[in-house]
Write a structure and sequence with these properties.
Oligomer: single chain
Largest sheet: none
Strand content: under 5%
Number of strands: 0
Length: 95
Amino acid sequence: MLSDRLGNYPSVSAACRDLAPKLTVGAETLRKWVMQAQADAGVITGPTTEQLEEIKILKKENRDLKEANEILKAASIFFSSGNSTLAATDLPVHR
């Protein structure tokens, strides 16, 4: 609906300000949807919805890996400082 009417307005923002109330959404929300649809269609440059989803997944994975790394660092320091309750002599030796 909006893409075929963009030519009637001086800008995407103007179109969104005029049409958003008719669609019962906010003008900025509509503008973001239009910009994302244009990026997905290759009309404008910018990340596509698929790329944004991939970035979101990668950021979560990166956050999880950093957390795991911090836990492993803390465990390494704990066990190397002699603070563990498990003495080296208590370890079974396989010969």
